[in-house]
Each structure stands twice: as C-alpha cells, then as structure tokens.
C-alpha cells in the first residue's frame, strides 16, 4: 500500500485487491471524518469484479476526509481516505491539508520505483503512469495544450482556447487527409473530444436530400413519446460481478468452440445412496445431497479420461494437461453468478469433498468468497436443476475445457427390467472446448458420469 509523503496527512489509496483488477466499488464506509483509527482497522468494504473485500487502514490517526461516497466506482491507485496521523499538532496550511488532484504526480514521484505491494498482488508500476518521451521541441506546445485541456475538463471548467488543433489519432488524421476532410469541421464523438474514424466517414457521407426529410421526420415520434410514461423501464449500471461475468461469458462463447452433449439417466439408486449416507456415522456433520455424488462421479470420469482436464494456450499454441482437479461450482448469489472452486478435489475423500462443498456454497451465498477461491479452476458443475429446469447448454468458464450441467431430478415413467415403472430421472449436459476435446472423448466422459449415477457402486469399482 502506498501513502502520501506529507508529514501529517496520509492518503490511503485503493489497492489492487485481486490479480490485475483496475477498479472497485465502495460498498460501505465503517468510519466517518473525526473517527480515530488504528493500524489494521477495517475502514471500508469494496466490491471488485471478483469478490467483496474489507480494507484495513495501515496506520494510526484520525480520519480527516473520505474522498468518495458509497456506491462510487474508484480506480486502483486513487486516494479514498485521508488520515491525520499527528492529531493535536498545529494545523498546516490549507494547501497541505487538502490534497488537490494536480498534487498527485508529486506524491507518486516520492514513492519507490517499480510495482508497489498492495493488499493482494501488486499495484500499477510507476512506468505505467509516465508519458511517452517527446520526439522533439515542436511537439511540446501541442502536448502541453492537450494536457491543459484534459485537466481543465477534469476540473469542470472550459478548455483553454489555445488548443485549436483537433484531437485525433495519427491513423484518423491520415484517413481524413486521404478523404480530403478538414478535421476542424468535424464534431468529435470520441472520449475527451477525440475524433474517431466513424466521425470522419460521417463527414464524407452525402447529406440527405430535402425530399427525404419529410419521410424521415415521423419515424422518431414513437420514441419521443416513450419517456412520458414513467416506470416502464429501469436502467441498472453494469458493474462488479455482473460486469465481469458478462465479459467472461462473451469472451468464452466467441473464443472456445462449444459442443454440448446430453444424456438422460435413471438416478434412482443414487438417490437411495444419498439417503443412506445421510444416516452414516462417517458423514456426520456434513451435508449430503445429489450434487455431492455428481461431483464425485465427475472426478472419477476425469480420472478415467484425464485428457479432458486441460486448457488451451493460444499464445504458445499448446494444450496444457492439468494433473490436478480444481472443481468449480457455479453459485447464484445476491451479487450475481460466482464460480469458486474446490482446490485439489481429486485428492479428497467423500466426507472431505462434502465438507469443502458445503463451505464453498455457504461462503458464496454470504458474499464472502475471496478472489483466490475463484482462480485456477479446471472443470465446473452448474446445478440448474435447483431451479426446476431439465437442463441447459452451459458456457465454459474461461480457461476451462468442460462444464457439466445437472438438471432437475423428477419421477418419470422408465423402462426398468423390462417393465415401465416410476423412476427418478435427470438429464445431464456436458459442454466442452472442441479445440482440445474431441467428440469421442467428450462422449466417453459424459457416458461415464451417467453410468456411475445409474450404478453408484461404480464409484468403488472405477474409483
């Protein structure tokens, strides 16, 4: 963690509470200005894309100011709280007591070079905040003017009039030159007033003919009427777990070629075994449910077909075989979908697996899952049956090769020993990455899981 070098006031900055996370939302402040704090005291709770984490203050003092309100998303490295570490001493000049945004580079320059250790992992290196070296003296006026304009924008005041040259990246400038477009005549739509390629192309598009104008005017009318009806829509900011889940699912769906196979299986014997295990002394104190035996069946299937437990390394163009199983369990929580995993699940006995599974689910539902618990998964189970649905086509967790969906277990007519009888039946769905799992391998894994759940004694004969 880094802090301001002021002798009296220390700035506690938002740490990187995960691996390379860039922002976090302040969920709750536990202190207010004027409160006394001690080294190690938790001052706030923040939510990242992976977990909710409590942040301890690294020094003693009195809270001078809270820099952000609850519900604000803050970049890693930004000061979130100022602490007076020498209360009772004569007050300093206002400029020293209230850090202003322009003073941040000076504080950064006083810190040690290189990446600084934070709460978990490491923060942004000093080099990442430096500007590129200037190519020549001619670039100085433009760069200085651009910096002044951006700073003025951040401070909420009009940009200096000296910045007359339109802001655009070199490829966009070349495009405008090739098309004969004057950048000064374009209204920018990019961030910070930057002209984009779309702006240039729009400037070259022919203006609509006067005859077409009357036809186009009636089209927006229904849209304009929509805001008049209150309460018909609610906009929810996409952030935290939802934002991370969306990015992960889109990345997975359009990176790994998914194949999903299905099988319907009679799990009557498995359900009987569940009831027997609930009264077994060896399982006392742990929760026994069908998901436990499904997890064990998947682990046995992976043991019989280890090539399914792998990942695709695009950069190295290699398939990485994992000789361990970190079993992910998809959990629906108030914060959204989380997929913590049981480390080295392949080495656990059935009671140990039951204990780990119970702790994982309860921790996730309480919102206490740590970022470390969600890293390094190899395969995942998603139990959609708890919602009463038969099955689904699950999307792979990024970096994994397979995910098993378990549907609802229902009493259905089933041919058993030549007669139609009511049996407890479920449908399993296995999605896998077809780059490294062929149809034959995926089919064998799914068939083995089904065979074990149909005849759970195979947990012993195959395990």
Beta-strand content: 15-25%
Helix content: 25-40%
Class per helix and strand makeup = alpha+beta
In angstroms, what is the radius of gyration?
A: 29 Å
Question: What shape does the CA trace take?
Answer: globular
Low-confidence stretches: 1-5, 93-163
**Mean pLDDT across every amino acid position:** 79
Number of strands: 21
Helix count? 13
How far apart are the first and last residues' alpha carbons, in Å?
Answer: 48 Å
Major pleated sheet: 7 strands, mixed
Brief description of this entry?
The chain has 463 residues and is an alpha+beta fold.
Your description of this structure?
The chain is α+β, with helices and mostly antiparallel strands. The protein is 28% helix and 22% strand. Strands 11, 14, 17, 18, 19, 20 and 21 form a seven-stranded mixed sheet that branches. The protein has a four-stranded antiparallel sheet with strand order 1-8-6-3, with no helix packed on it. A four-stranded antiparallel sheet has the order 5-4-2-7, with no helix packed on it. Strand 15 (331-333) and strand 16 form a beta hairpin. Helix 4 (170-179) runs parallel beside helix 5 (197-204) and helix 10 crosses helix 12 (439-454). The radius of gyration is 29 Å and the shape is globular. It starts with 8 loop residues before the first strand and ends with a helix.
